[in-house]
Amino acid sequence: MAPDPRTLAARTLGTAQRRLATALRSRVAGPDAHEAATRIWETPGPRWFVREDPIWRVHEDASMFTGGVAALLLQSLHPSAMAGVAGHSGFRGDPWGRLQRTSHYIATTTYGTIEHAEEAVDVVRAVHARVRGTSDLGVSYAADDPHLLRWVHVAEVWCFLRAHQLFGQRPLTPDEADTYVAQTAVPAQRLGARDLPMTVAQLEAALAEHRAELVVTEAARDAATFLLREPPLPAAARPGYALIAAGALSVLPPWAGEMLDLPATSGVGRVLARAVGHTSTRLVRWGMAGS
Question: Which Pfam family is an annotated match for this chain, by its short name (predicted)?
């Protein structure tokens, strides 16, 4: 008896979903994903945040993939921040390791116990204490400079929130969005950032304040090329990543895309990129459901 075509289709779709889930998990969480998840979720104790909090809703949504790419592009426009990344993070030599460390930090400080969250903050503070150098503009920088930490935080939170409001499964209300901004400041303050925004209006104002410091350096152009045109992925995975990257272009402030000479910064191109962003987020969400 020939198998039912619908059964075959369901099996094929299920296999594809599991493969996508495995690929996403291995890239983002790394080889010790199960152990890390067990530690984060199963350790008893008080936490900074709970499931009902906006920070949970944003950070667990598939839109974080698009928001993350946009944040890296936006952060690269600060010469000192980009110099620190280019000179010390090994983003070209070990991009997935850097992504996994970042995702583990966000997961631990969002969902983990206060004890584990503070341990994660201490690890990053120790790394920042060793990151010193001179930017492409000849300006000395230190990764633990409170003002530089503020820029990194503002750019990241702005992109995460913008991506969620555009592509998230349950966008935040205005009050929830304000709460999200305030909640993200909890670990950032412990890292050493100061004068952090606590509302969306303050977040927008902070982003505007930093614009005078932003410059397109060769390191920033190199980062954009790496993220958008030379991702360290096998050929089969590049089309899917290209959808995520296109969505990220629609998340960026138009002026940031123009500074980096990126496509889809305005007009019809931006509308199309946003449509692609919806598609890529749905695809990632479907894949995550198979994990």
Answer: MPAB_Lcp_cat
Cα–Cα distance measured from residue 37 to residue 107, given in angstroms and rounded to the nearest whole number = 9
Q: What pTM, to 2 d.p., does this model score?
A: 0.89
Q: What is the pLDDT of residue 18?
A: 56
Partners of 82 in the beta sheet?
Answer: none
pLDDT over threshold 70, residue 118: yes
User: What is residue 94's predicted lDDT score, i.e. its pLDDT?
Assistant: 59
Neighbours of 206 (CB within 10 A): 20
Q: 154, 51 in Cβ contact below 8 A?
A: no
User: To which H or E segment does residue 29 belong?
Assistant: none
The full DSSP string for 160-179 is HHHHHHHH-SSPPPHHHHHH
Give residue 105's pLDDT.
95
> Radius of gyration (Cα) for the chain, nearest Å?
19
Nearest of 169, 206, 163 to residue 65 by alpha carbon? 163
CA–CA gap between residue 256 and residue 249 (Å, rounded): 9
Ranges of H-type helices in 29-145? 33-42, 54-59, 63-75, 79-88, 95-111, 114-130
Q: Check whether 189 has a pLDDT greater than 70.
A: yes
**Rounded Cα distance, 39 and 51, in Å:** 17
Tell me the average pLDDT across 4-28: 54
Q: 3-state class of 47 per DSSP?
A: strand
Cα four-point dihedral sign 81, 200, 167, 284: positive
